[in-house]
Specification:
heterotrimer; A alpha/beta (196); B mainly alpha (388); C alpha/beta (212); A: 196 residues; alpha/beta; Beta Polymerase, domain 2; five-stranded mixed sheet; 3 helices; 20% strand; elongated; C: 212 residues; disordered C terminus
Chain lengths: 196, 388, 212
């Protein structure tokens, strides 16, 4: 674990946090995300237990994850479950980071809001809704935040286009192949090159 | 009365819209509306390789472009599980701290201009020009540098850069004294910023604020010291912390940060001199980092690696990584999800100003309308970063 | 040279026959010619010009040397625009020191930065709120053509929304480049016609050069 996730000599490690979480929620189906290149300690939690787990992580004095760094969404089309919502937690007192993930299906992706636990989640969840269309139940004001209010569609989904517009050059605009005659005056005279 | 501080406003530091509900001069409700600069950078990053996304990051927090480059490079390096050599880290620290000085200078100039002190604006931009000419020397562009690469730098630092940086770093404390002489004990400044736009410690933590906004409220949290990166734990510096969480404390925190950044930059210059003014500027891991041109012309493997990296980009392992740095505005982090191809599957940017702006309603509700300007100024937001 | 600049006090009449030189040159053929003629005419106490040329010159000089930009910085180019207000690249030399906050008092809209789809109606509204005469400089690659960002969120060039007079390329353009753009705009202003009521006064054409 590098020093950007757990400080050297920190009192809490993500493994210990996972252990405490399992002690606090014995029945809940938690699992650690597998993968050699998953560089942060990631726990996949069920959506219905999310708020209790987050409250426990915030209030337990041994862990004290007081700051929610960010909430983001990822679209794994064509994998099922399609969406993931990622929660990055930060414990200032113990110099430790932890990642939670919730997996959501493609039809009607819904997850309860954590803005009651950390008020900072408000705008992060709005942004995730704006980009992916994921509903956060219980959110005080779930409206678009970065795109215009009247925008239709969820731009960051993998099946939404980038919106690339073809740039007009002379080779793909056939009616404009002749440059402006005045430009000839600006053209440099022919230069003879010599190879030395 | 509902008042719209529209996207075009001289004091909103970009295209921020704040809808204020006023009762006389008191603000009853403030609602910031953002998105007027939304650029679709996260979507566009899925269509570009990691290195091609580096110029995009310059345009995010455009006052501190090298900080953004650093955050992306560190996230990609964490994903690849490589570490840049010590000399590269020292150069990165030097340029990032000069960036911090430049960003805080712009903040101070524009914040003071909003409150009414015009002279500070001219002084600060004068210093900023010196940092911009250092950028120009290093990478050719004044503002949008794109100088860091995954595993190293784009090119080695030129001869004479260290002398120029040293001259700047030696004269910076005198300039900082100038700014403080103009503002710190100025009764107008004190009246406009003391006990204005307060943010309590509890609110700052709950709302996820980071950077000087959090430190001004009394929480001693700086990623450079607490979750260090780039060798910051070997440098000798202090982290200024405020007490009351008002605009004056945030001002003090940032001005002291300019002083500390000068200190770190001086140490970094000495280290680079000790390691050689010209030397290695890239990691020698050719699977991910471009090899040196001399080797490309002589060694077959290096040529093949060069071809692969330039034609396709490097192939990271399937996984994900998040790396955060202490940018001038707060915790700036990049989250990459990789599917094994040279283009990231997802790039998410945790921008500090996006989160810090959420504290605005807490700061100004119940206060006077003129304090809204002070609050926005003391938050130090950059709309390019908020809207991405 | 006096006649190289747009001097309305230029002699209009046909060149008098000159007994001294052997060849008869038309008016303005050589640099020394018209100069002498003007001097001769002035010495005789008669000057020819056009009223329209004079009005146009006076009004356009006033407009060009006192352009008041609208404070409209969107993104990174705004910082370079702020740099031209700063002490090193001083824009107040060009009369443009006052960046008006309100569009009702501004002449020039420098669109500095990328125009997103949410911002486009605001740009249009600000342009329409500016009174005539007004000009637009599109500063930077993003405002000119979309720049680095060719995607769903950015309008590919602000000229899709407002008519642009000068495009300044760069990402961001150096402050000197923006000042060059403003000077080009000044040349354009000096060459444009002035409408007073139903009368239109045109600028005197410069010799030897096409349109600016």
């Amino acid at each position: 674990m590098d020093t950007m996730t757990v400080a050297a000599g920190a009192t809490l490690t993500p493994e210990r946090a996972e252990q405490r979480l399992r002690e606090g929620f014995p029945g809940a189906p938690l699992r650690r995300q597998e993968g050699a290149a998953v560089r942060d300690h990631t726990l996949i939690v069920p959506a219905d237990h999310l708020v209790e787990i987050c409250t426990f992580l915030r209030d337990d004095p041994e862990m004290d994850f007081a700051i929610l760094s960010w909430v983001g969404g990822v679209d794994y089309l064509p994998r099922q479950p399609r969406f993931e919502v990622v929660y990055h937690l930060l414990s200032i007192a113990h110099h430790c980071r932890l990642v939670l993930k919730v997996e959501l299906p493609e039809e009607n992706p819904q997850v309860p809001t954590v803005s009651g636990v950390w008020p900072t989640a408000n705008w992060h969840e709005r942004e995730t809704y704006d980009f992916y269309g994921i509903q956060f139940t219980g959110h005080p004001d779930l409206t678009r935040i970065l795109l215009p209010e009247a925008w239709v569609g969820w731009p960051l989904r993998k099946d939404s286009p980038l919106g690339y517009q073809e740039v007009a050059f002379t080779h793909n605009t056939p009616e404009r192949t002749v440059p402006d005659p005045d430009l000839k005056k600006l053209a440099p005279k022919k230069v003879k090159y010599r190879a030395h | 009365m509902t008042l719209n501080m529209g996207p075009q406003h001289p004091s909103t530091h970009g295209v921020l819209r704040v809808v204020l509900e006023l009762d006389g001069e008191t603000v009853v409700k403030a609602k910031p509306i953002i998105g007027y600069l939304h650029t679709g950078m996260e979507k566009q990053a899925e269509y570009k390789t990691y290195t091609q996304s580096i110029p995009q990051t310059d345009r995010m927090d455009y006052l501190a472009p090298m900080s953004n480059n650093l955050a992306l490079c560190l996230a990609a390096e964490k994903l690849l599980d490589i570490e840049a050599p010590a000399r590269v880290q020292a150069i990165r620290v030097l340029l990032t701290e000069l960036t911090r000085i430049s960003a805080h200078c712009v903040w101070l100039g524009t914040h003071a201009l909003d409150i009414g002190a015009m002279t500070v604006f001219f002084y600060c931009f004068r210093e900023r020009e010196k940092v911009l000419s250092i950028y120009d020397m290093v990478c050719g562009a004044r503002m949008t540098a794109s100088y860091f690469r995954v595993g190293g730098l784009a090119s080695d630092i030129p001869l004479g850069l260290l002398d120029k940086c040293e001259t700047f770093v030696d004269e910076m404390p005198a300039h900082t004294d100038e700014y403080e002489a103009l503002l710190t004990k100025n009764p107008i400044w004190l009246a406009r910023t003391r006990e204005v736009a307060p943010l309590s410690r509890r609110d700052a933590l709950a709302l996820g604020a980071t950077g000087p906004t959090l430190r001004g409220s009394g929480v001693k949290w700086d990623l450079r010291k607490d979750l260090p990166y780039c060798g910051y734990d070997t440098y000798d510096f202090e982290v200024p912390v405020g007490q009351n969480g008002d605009a004056y404390d945030r001002y003090q925190v940032r001005v002291q940060e300019i002083r500390q950044a000068t200190r770190i930059a001086k140490q970094a210059i000495e280290r680079i001199r000790a390691m050689g003014e010209q030397g290695e500027y890239r990691l020698r891991d050719y699977k991910y980092v471009l090899p040196a041109k001399e080797e490309v012309k002589t060694s077959m493997e290096a040529l093949i690696h060069h071809f692969k990296i330039v034609a396709h980009g490097f192939f990271p392992p399937v996984g994900e990584a998040y790396a955060a740095i202490e940018a001038p505005k707060g915790e700036l982090g990049f989250y990459f999800v990789s599917d094994g191809t040279p283009r990231p599957w997802r790039m998410k940017v945790r921008s500090p100003s996006f989160v810090n702006l959420q504290t605005l309603p807490t700061m100004v509700e119940g206060r006077l309308v003129a304090d809204v300007i002070t609050a926005i100024g003391s938050l130090d937001i950059v709309l390019g970063e908020i809207d991405r | 040279m006096a006649q190289e600049k747009d001097n309305p006090f230029r002699v209009l009449g046909p060149a008098p026959v000159r007994p001294a030189e052997s060849t008869v040159k038309p008016v303005g053929a050589g640099p020394g010619d018209t100069d002498e003629l003007i001097r001769e005419e002035v010495e005789r106490g008669v000057l020819f010009t056009t009223v329209g040329g004079m009005v146009n010159w006076a009004v356009n000089q006033a407009r060009a040397n006192a352009i008041w930009p609208l404070g409209f910085g969107l993104a990174c180019c705004a910082i370079e625009m702020m740099a031209i207000v700063g002490p090193r690249f001083d824009i107040s030399r060009f009369g443009a020191e006052v960046f008006r906050a309100s569009p009702r008092q501004a002449d020039l809209m420098i669109v500095a930065g990328r125009v997103s789809v949410k911002m486009a109606p605001v740009v249009r509204q600000l342009y329409e709120q500016m009174p005539d005469p007004k000009w637009v400089i599109s500063m930077g690659a993003c405002a000119s053509c979309g720049g680095v960002f060719n995607n769903y969120a950015i309008v590919q060039g602000v000229d899709k929304i407002v008519p642009v007079d000068v495009y300044v390329p760069g990402c961001p353009p150096r402050p000197e480049a923006l000042i060059h753009g403003i000077m080009k705009l000044q040349e354009k202003i000096l060459a444009s016609p002035v409408e007073v009521g139903s009368l239109t006064f045109h600028a005197r054409k410069k010799k030897g050069r096409g349109a600016a």
